[in-house]
Amino acid sequence: MSDRLQHVRPEERPFAERCLEWAETVAARRAPKLTPFLDPREKWIVRTLIGGRTSVSVSFFGGYDGAERERALIHPDFWWPEPGDFRVAALAVEANRRFVRLTHRDVLGALVSLGLKRDVFGDILLTAASCHVLVAEEIAPYVCQHLTRIHLARVRVEPIPLEALRVPEPETEEETHSVASMRLDALIAAVWRFSRGKAALRIRAGDVKVNWRIADDPDETLGEGDVVSVRGFGRFRVAEVGGPTRKGRLVVRVAKFR
């Protein structure tokens, strides 16, 4: 087991060990195991720990192709799941748009205030004309009944088919930065153009997440694919790390989310 967990950070070990337990149970009982919604880092852990096993496979689905948050279905390798096996439901949230503009933060806050855990909610899809939310099928009726207000606006929530989802195009802006190292504080300072000291203060204050987990070490090394978010500023993904220049600096391309 220790070999399987060597690439997992210490704070992620409880989740990783639970993944291994799920896989062992599926292998022994030959019956599938459906997880809650997972963020991209958790999906990576599941895929890394279970993907290479014999007799057990893992599949993901979050309601539409390219979903960020998805449920994993760990299953015997002789069986392949259908979308309905993931028990993902889509809900349309309707408010009077003349008086309120729904934001991701407002919608998520209202959902969590219902007393439900974050892992029963998938992606929140906002466009100029719609607000669609992916949820675990088992809690959809509860949300439809009890989510009646978001921020200061009354809302109505109704189930819709997955085929009716409106998925917005991701808005990113690519930037290239020259940094001395791939340290977390160095990348944050470069992307948002403030000092490494200020970046370190943000990190130690708990304002920074790497791959959806709180990161409190300014020395942490980032790599391609890592997603960094800073409270009050936004988030970016490390898209590509180029070789060192003649001065020994690294050229890093990032995708900055608008």
From TrEMBL:
Lyase among keywords: no
Residues spanning the signal sequence: none
Domain called RNA-binding S4: residue spans: 182-239
Gene3D superfamilies linked: 3.30.1370.160, 3.30.70.330, RNA-binding S4 domain
UniProt GO molecular function: RNA binding
Coiled-coil regions listed in the entry: none
RNA-binding is among the record's keywords: yes
UniProt-listed InterPro entries: Nucleotide-bd_a/b_plait_sf (IPR012677), RqcP2_RBD (IPR040591), S4_RNA-bd (IPR002942), S4_RNA-bd_sf (IPR036986)
Keywords tagged on the record: RNA-binding
Name listed for the protein in its UniProt record: Putative RNA-binding protein YlmH
